[in-house]
Every structure is written in C-alpha cells, then in structure tokens.
Amino acid sequence: MSADDKEKFGLSDADLASCPTVYADGALQGKTVLISGGAGGIGRATAWLFGRLGARVVISGRSQEKIDLLVAAMRDKGLDCHGASVDIRDAEAVESFFDTLWNEHGPVDILVNSAGGQFPQAAIDFSVKGWNAVINTNLNGTWFMMQSAARKWRDTGKPGSIVNIVVVTNHGLHGVAHTIAARSGVIGLTRSVAVEWAPLGIRVNCIAPGAIETEGWKVYTPEARAAYPQSNPMMQAGNTWDIAEACMYLGGPSGRFITGELLTVDGGGQLWGETWTTGKPDYFKTGD
C-alpha cells in the first residue's frame, strides 16, 4: 500500500504517536499487554495507546516484517514494544507462543484480540476454503488465544483481562456473513467464560466497532466506502484511536467491575441503518 493510501485509509504512526488521550500518563506503568493483530489498524492504534500509557507492549501477527516495522517505530519514540509472529489458527503454536512470552516478558496483564480478517462477498458464493479461513481466524484463533491466556493466569494465580474485537452483529451489516457468524461466536464465548472465569480473577469483554476508517477499507468498493459515514446518525466514520481508547476503558483499571460486556462503538449505527460492504444491491435501493 502506498503512503497516499495509508494516509487516506487510516491514522499513520505519526498520528498515533501524538493523538490526544483522556488517560493519564503512566496509567499502565508496570503492565504487560499482548495485542494480536497488533500491526493492523485497530491493533496498531491500541499498541500505540497502551505503550504511551507506560505498558510493555507485545504485538503478534502473521507478518514478521509488519511487526518489526511497528516495533521499530514505537521504540523510536521511547516505548517498550516487542513482537513475534504466530499463526493463531494453530492451537499448539499459540500455546508455545504463550510459553515463550511468559518466559521472556513475565505474566501478561491484558490480552487484546484484534487479529481477524474477512472479505466482502455474497454469502451464497462463499467457497468452503473462504468460509473456513474466516471462521478459523476470527473464531477459532480468538478462542485459542483466550484459552491459552486463561490457563496461564489460572496456573500462575494471576488475574487477567481480555478484550475481544468483534463487529456489530445486531443490525444490518451485509456482505460479510462469515465474519458475522464467527464474531457472534466470540460474543457468545465471551459471555459464557466471563462467568466461568470470574473466580479466577479474569475479566472478558468485547468491543464492536462500527464504521471505523482503517487500511482494511481498501478492499471495499468506493461506493461502499462512501456510504459508511451515512450508516450512523452521527453521519461520520470513526477512527482506530476511538477503538483503542475503548480497549483501555474495558481492559484497564477503569473496567475493574465490568465483565461479559459488549461495548458498541459505532456512532449509534446499531440504532439507525445498514452497512453494505459489497455495495447496496439495486433491489434494495427502491425508495431511496
């Protein structure tokens, strides 16, 4: 992606290094945070915010090159950032990753599951491979990270906090039925294990972003992108910093008494309209 595209479709590292925040300096001092998909749009913003608040940040993903670039950018600003590649779809690889992480950096305090992906397509045309790719990453991968973290916290007697990035599932988000299915599963998992894991001192919550401008927008048609700001009553798109600050609210000390919750950050879109990632079909344009 060119520099122009990065500027167009999301916040740059320079932006993220200087975005104003409502949180106090040092709010996460002494904490270690793991962010899956940490080199992507939302994960990247969250890494910058948590690092700026004093946390040791560990980012994971599939591209070591992207991880290394972010680690270098954050370290250049004096932030404590580390990274490693891991395929979250592989349960054994995830377990091994957590073993290494604990040995090298000590206990993780907060896990943000931001890794995921999907492609816009009519559901009737999904291939088996395409369906499984999304389910394996967005649902299975998230679960493997959740379970591995929880086992570490249980076995070491440490409390922990998990924030899962999902999507808004209770209004019209069309063209990504595979991710709706996967993320709905994550929401159900979150609510279930929030009860099971409460005695272990583990909190588990979800954040559902609405129309958030990220580099991922490049996969959508210009027609679809142009309609996103009209998908909510605030008539605008959010940005990745909005989601990063929500992650801090739920995952950090401010969320001490919150678990099993789904926080929707969509400008009121769930109350308002619809989002067509594939562009609105002519059939449904009648009466516009």
SSE blueprint and pairings:
Layout lengths: L2 H6 L4 H4 L15 E5 L4 H12 L3 E6 L2 H13 L4 E5 L5 H15 L4 E4 L14 H29 L3 E6 L6 E3 L2 H20 L5 E8 L2 E2 L8 H6 L10 E2 H12 L10 E4 L8 E3 L12
Parallel strand pairs: 1-2, 1-4, 2-3, 4-5, 5-7, 6-11, 7-10, 8-9
Helix pairs in contact: 3-9, 5-6, 6-7
Shape: globular
The strands making up the biggest β-sheet line up spatially as 3-2-1-4-5-7-10
Look at the helices and sheets and give the structural class: alpha/beta
Low-confidence stretches: 1-7
Put simply, the count of helices is 9
What is the succession of H and E elements? HHEHEHEHEHEEHEEHEHEE
CATH topology: Rossmann fold
**N- to C-terminal separation?**
35 Å
Strand content: 15-25%
Helix content: 40-55%
- The Rg value, from CA coordinates, equals 18 Å
Number of domains: 1
The overall pLDDT average reads 91
Describe the structure.
41% of the residues lie in helices and 17% in strands. With 288 residues, it is α/β, with parallel strands linked by helices. The protein has a single domain (24-285), classed as NAD(P)-binding Rossmann-like Domain (Rossmann fold, 3-Layer(aba) Sandwich), CATH 3.40.50.720. The strands form three sheets. A seven-stranded parallel sheet has the order 3-2-1-4-5-7-10, with helices on both faces. Strands 6-11 form a two-stranded parallel ribbon. It has a two-stranded parallel ribbon with strand order 8-9.
